[in-house]
Amino acid sequence: MSGTDVCVIIAARNAAETITTAITSALRQPEVAEVVVVDDASTDATEAMARAADDGSGRLLVLRLDVNRGPSFARNMAIRNSRSALISILDADDFFLPARFANLVGGDDWDLVADNIVFVEHASVRDVLSGSVAQFDADPALLGFAQFIAGNISSRGARRGELGFLKPVMRRAMLQRHGLSYDEQLRLGEDYALYARAMLMGARFKVVRSCGYCAVVRPNSLSGQHRTEDLQRLADADLGLLAQPGLAAEDKRILRRHERHVRDKYRLRRFLDLKAAGGMAAAAKFAVASPASFMAVVRGVAMDKFDALAKSGSVPSVPEPRLRYLIAAENAGAQK
């Protein structure tokens, strides 16, 4: 295999409706030498649909787990069972746009490189496939560590668009050199944690604003679901990053801000879990156990009530665009 061959890894669970589109979009890319799908103990026909998407080129490998282990384990397994110099992440709900890698993997000034993402509601996928995605200038730039961490602090009430959503191509040699893999304790923010650790070890993360990745927004998407303990583990992952030696003061500041942001989400969810399971007394005991928990609960409950008013129509809402892009692009060209 050459140094520009790409392996696309797909962790899939109960993705029978979407896996064919994902695999087909990867196999259509000339640079793709391997597509490795790991069916993470699906209870539907994901494995069968994945195998049926084989184009006969010998590039597709489908593996199956009998016990659900989570996306981090599945991705690590896919990487172990591949050989290509470049590794690309594709979620089972999503798909690549034509010529994605031709516009992305040139040059040697990066260890991770990602392009823009277009978010589209499931009902509008046909519009994207017909070529309605805006054509942006590439405008390449290296992403700084503090900039990346700050870009993962979401705003309440805004549509999600953290930089952790980026789906980069990663150099296998970089991962091996630093002993990097997905943290299998994480089922939320596993991409964010891996990219952040790589950047702390000196990896160059290049971002271009041209769009080659389509993320399909589905109400039942597994990526949009997480447990309360998943938030706690993600906040703890930030503490692990903070323990790394040689962090600049600004990097520490923004990491602490992200950790508090995630920890406060955990505290609110924990309060609500306790209230549902044991009533207000148990929940109140948790809330008053520390000033940080109390403030997180008070702010969170207040914002939840405000959101409920907005959904009821008491607060005017702003209509969402049909297609939404992760990275703002000032030099948008004409649409196809």
From TrEMBL:
CDD domains: Glyco_tranf_GTA_type
Pfam families for the chain: Glycos_transf_2
UniProt KW Chloroplast keyword: no
Any GO MF annotation of the entry: glycosyltransferase activity
Keywords carried by this UniProt record: Glycosyltransferase, Transferase
EC numbers on record: 2.4.-.-
Domain Glycosyltransferase 2-like: 7-110
InterPro entries, sorted: Glyco_trans_2-like (IPR001173), Glycosyltransf_2 (IPR050834), Nucleotide-diphossugar_trans (IPR029044)
Keyword hit for Ribosomal protein: no
UniProt xrefs under PANTHER family: GLYCOSYLTRANSFERASE, GLYCOSYLTRANSFERASE 2-LIKE DOMAIN-CONTAINING PROTEIN
Protein's UniProt name: Succinoglycan biosynthesis protein ExoU
